[in-house]
UniProtKB/TrEMBL annotation:
GO terms for cellular component: cytoplasm; nucleolus. This is 18S rRNA (guanine-N(7))-methyltransferase. It is found in: Cytoplasm; Nucleus. SUPFAM superfamilies: S-adenosyl-L-methionine-dependent methyltransferases.
Amino acid sequence: MAGSGRRPEHRGPPELVRACGPARLGSALRARAAFLLTAFCRCSSTMRRRRGNIRRSTPSLRSSRVAEIQAQMAARAVELLALPEGRPCLLLDVGCGSGLSGEHISEKGHCWIGVDISRAMLDVAVEREVEGDLLLADMGNGIPFRPGTFDGCISISAVQWLCNADRKSHSPPKRLYQFFSTLYSALARGSRAVLQLYPENPEQLELITAQAMRAGFTGGMVVDYPNSAKAKKFFLCLFVGASGILPKGLGTECADGEEIHQAKFTNERIRFRNTKGKSVKKSRDWILEKKERRRRQGKEVRADTKYTGRKRRPQF
């Protein structure tokens, strides 16, 4: 789980934080480049010229890295949708931003409609001439489309914003339920919704999942690279109508195909053991181990029965 100190949703409402962030990144980079170019012309020192080049290149490197990660998560989300091959589908991109995720959808031959609360981000998407249609709306107020409109839905790093109350009238559980209930209605039966998110803590993850199940969805959480601190990604994979098979997360198998040893739920009953790995004293396992040691020592031991190690009733 990501730490709460650097989370963008804690800095303010999404329409303000996102407007001051990547949406204005292009104009900010151009202004900074112009400033550095002027300083470069005025400087005569070689060292200053090198510093200017480094400072000028750093923001573009960061923005390109963010765009690369965004494209990778969008590709993974579309993969988890398991769309039929050879048939174009209409997808919904919740929190589309500047249209980076929509570009991957267009490359796959599908049509899409993007929804975002930030007008500045949508303006950037218009400047980039994305192929999808764009809609300015707050997903916490619901998805404003007719029932059965979309063949699938993806969302990259947007759902966790609904867990914060930016206004006095905002209630995170109600806004989450409004979002999931209207999304369930807008999706066609048999389709999927894949929502990538960064939960702040287990309680927030439980809140999001509970409201999705309450709205009628089935499914669960797909975690890619669960043993990596940096590469771990959470994808809430939801099914509309009949429940499907939950996909496996990436990085859960070794190179030779064997699964990584992790805790699993089984119906097998396992006896309690102490911190040293030994059976608890006077328990059935402890008695059977002791009788087996005596047999190896050649001593006479009674046969094991179903009554061995069973507690006796207290005497009057």
